[in-house]
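thread: overnight batch results

M.L. [08:02]
morning all. the overnight job finished for the chain we discussed friday. pasting input first so we're all looking at the same thing
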Amino acid sequence: MKREQDPSSPEPGQPVPDHTQRIVRALGRVLAAKQTYLADHAAAVARRVLALDDTLGLFRGERAWLAIAGRVHDIGLVAISDLVVLKPDTLSDQERHLITAHPVAGYHILGELAIPELVCEAVLYHHERLDGSGYPQGLIGPEIPLASRLVAVADVFEAMVAERPWRKALPVSEALAELTAMAGSRIEPRMVEALVDRVREDQSKKRQT
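M.L. [08:03]
and the structure it wrote out:
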């Protein structure tokens, strides 16, 4: 899926314009109005992708946009009923179809707001997996944009360690073990390694204080 780049969209290497920052804050308020946990999760993913890039150095001139991708990665969920988003039971096929469509909805929402394609693609493909088991397009390995792979790792970890209305949070140690088990088959192994190292380093610093 590829849309024509809006000529008014800033380039990813440029500073984030004030009007774009206002748009992102407004989108954050929209998420918070739908469900507080969505806004909290978005902020956590934004922090995590920046922490990962501190280690990996993949987006040196685009870090502000990378953080925005983290903040808006789930914006497409605003198009889906809370009865589906918050359902504690197994989703029906129709409900699952709605959920798996949220990256596409987010992509189209952002496409109307003069947001760089780097961010839009990160949102569109953040549920793709290296083995092709993800959605919405079942991309494989290098077909998945780098920013999407980074957001995916941050998203998976932060989702596991946060409480949801329908489940308890996983202990960090269990979340790291699950993340490591996915590395290479579903999510980017070097990004998982960077996240695991950073989390353990942060835990070690906390124990020393």
